[in-house]
Design a protein that fits this description.
three-stranded antiparallel sheet, alpha+beta
């Protein structure tokens, strides 16, 4: 493979360095624009296997909202996102769910767990009209 030039925006720290990298496929030849050492590690990882924290939602029953936000507890290979989201699409949780509860352990063999990122209490149906089109109205007495 020949020498190739690639542009990255580092997401490790808030600076967001714009880095131009010259590489030969397996080895970095030169970098320009990085302001810290973390960005070099980021670029070398991006060239080998891009890793990200996946954030998405999962369906839930018995709560006020129909979905609950979830994320991976550590970075997973970006190429596995379609498989992970496909597996999460088939899941339906039951309320209550607490923040940081593990929803799925070792998702698609990555070693990462899917965790809830908010509390989702059980919704009690004390008012039967709450989710219907009919709502009670006050009758004015004159």
């Amino acid at each position: 493979m020949g020498v190739e030039k690639k542009h990255f925006v580092c997401v490790v720290c808030p600076i967001g360095c714009e880095i131009d990298v010259v590489h030969d496929g397996s080895k970095i030849i030169s970098t320009e624009g990085n302001k810290c050492e973390k960005s070099e590690e980021f670029v070398s990882q991006e060239l080998v296997e891009p890793m990200r924290i996946l954030t998405t939602t999962v369906r839930i029953q018995g709560s006020r909202w129909p979905v609950i936000p979830v994320r991976t507890d550590k970075a997973v290979p970006k190429r596995l996102f379609p498989r992970i989201t496909g597996q999460l699409r088939r899941i339906k949780l039951q309320a209550p769910v607490n923040m940081l509860d593990v929803v799925v352990r070792d998702i698609v063999g990555t070693g990462a767990d899917i965790i809830a990122t908010r509390n989702m209490p059980r919704e009690y149906q004390s008012r039967p009209w709450r989710h219907s089109l009919w709502t009670p109205r006050r009758i004015s007495r004159r």
